[in-house]
Design a protein that fits this description.
209 residues, mainly alpha, 32% helix
Length: 209
């Protein structure tokens, strides 16, 4: 008995489909979830911020999509091992905090020699880290070869921290590269006598323009 060609093709198709369906079920399945928003408590210590900063870099920050820690060879972006020791010497006039801030808010301002631009500003979409989350990332970066000093009251050229409980409001530092609003009022020098404008006499003739 000869099996029709159409029937043989149908059996082959069914067998092939069943085989690949079986193989597909053997492959581990993983469900990708959107990154969870990080809750930054107001009482975080610097040590807590280091832990939170690493979590942000692993998750929402997507930092390890391009960066590595302790790897050599052909890398897309600079390896971060020991970055705390290099940060204060990368750009003249910038300490480690200011350098990290510039690298995250305006990453194309300074490009490490041997690498190409391409890192997005992480305070804007699609990453969109908050200023407090970025401070936590800074604390973690400081721990890579250095001693973390960043707190939630740390100000830098791109962010003025709010007032600490019982303290004075945070103000942007007066460091090179500072970005202050153009309408920032000037402050009188300590001990200076304020100059009062001369009194205006009533009935004075108008000044011609």
């Amino acid at each position: 008995m000869t099996v029709p060609v159409v029937a043989r093709i149908g059996v082959l198709v069914l067998a092939t489909t069943a085989f690949y369906g079986y193989v597909g079920q053997m492959v581990p399945q993983s469900e990708v979830q959107p990154p969870q928003e990080t809750v930054i408590r107001s009482d975080l210590t610097t040590a807590d911020m280091v832990t939170v900063g690493r979590e942000i870099m692993d998750g929402k920050g997507l930092c390890f999509t391009c960066h590595t820690i302790g790897r050599t060879g052909a890398l897309r972006f600079p390896d971060l091992a020991g970055v705390a020791g290099r940060a204060a010497e990368r750009v003249p006039g910038l300490n480690d905090v200011e350098y990290f801030a510039q690298s995250m808010y305006e990453p194309d301002t300074y490009i490490v020699p041997g690498f190409n631009p391409g890192m997005p500003a992480i305070n804007r979409a699609p990453i969109g880290l908050t200023d407090q989350e970025i401070l936590c990332v800074m604390a973690y970066l400081q721990s890579l070869g250095g001693t973390p000093t960043v707190t939630l009251q740390t100000s830098h050229s791109y962010y003025a921290a709010p007032a600490a409980p019982g303290g004075a409001p945070g103000e942007p530092p007066t460091t090179p590269g500072e970005k202050l609003p153009l309408d920032t009022p000037s402050k009188p020098m300590p001990g200076a006598t304020p100059v009062k404008p001369p009194p205006v006499k009533s009935g004075a003739p108008p000044v011609k323009q």
